[in-house]
Write a structure and sequence with these properties.
By secondary structure, the chain is mainly β. It has one domain: M1 Pyruvate Kinase, Domain 3 (Beta Barrel), CATH 2.40.33. Helices cover about 15% and strands about 35% of the residues. The strands form five sheets. A seven-stranded mixed barrel has the order 1-13-12-17-15-14-19. A three-stranded antiparallel beta sheet has the order 4-3-18, with no helix packed on it. It starts with 6 loop residues before the first strand and ends with a strand.
Amino acid sequence: MNIKSKEQVGVVQSIWQYAVKSMNGVKLDQADFTDGGILGDRSYALIDQSNQKVASAKFPKKWAKLLELNAAFVKQPSHDDQLPAVRVTSVCGLDILSTDKNADELLSDYVGRAVKLTSSRPNSVSLERLDPLETDETLLDIGDLMLKNKFSDYADIHILTTASLQQLSSISPGVQFDEIRFRPNLVIETDLGITGFAENDWVGKTVVVGDSVRFNITDPTPRCSIPTLSNGTFPKDPKVLKTIVDHNMLEVPLLENKVLPCTGIYGFLIQSGVVSINDPVWIE
């Protein structure tokens, strides 16, 4: 590949892995990107036993408490072994292993609904998402968009730039626009001189990370109410989403080009490999 066809835009600042859907993740120093994204990412989820839908904080009336929980593998997944157990904890003292016999009972008590923690994704899944632009409680079922064999909503990778976070902070300086609110897999520290919602311009292009990992960028990331919710680190703040609604409305191809508030980008893996902190990031 001709180096002149690439533009370096920054370096990897953070790598996030979310073992359980809608729970807080962990930062990694490096990650193995394979078919479906980071190995182990969103491999577990809670299933609502009343209707068999996937529990997601995208419907906060039911599932906002998931964002109070922290989830981490007891050891990092590998290609050679079965999926490790996960530990779920909270600041309130909850400490559960997925292998505990009473894990489902304790999690059900915590979230206030009967749930089952599982890594077995059904062939047919359903997931409720609150429409962020509707004043009434309008639910969208986005289960058909989810990746096969895991519980990611749509894409292999969710990328966010520091340029976008800085842009939001400059618009609403009293609001805490931290990466934790947006649940990305990769946060790119953009080079000096790259400003604004930088990744908007990367849709339709290829992101190259480090020596080999490549992603086809397909969509801006539509934002739901999750960035506004309390997550154990930052308090609830509706102004997070309002700022995005007022300043970064984009067409989203995956949702029939509906114009939605967006921050970040979605992509699909072209070439697998290992990504580490401070790896260079290129656009081609």
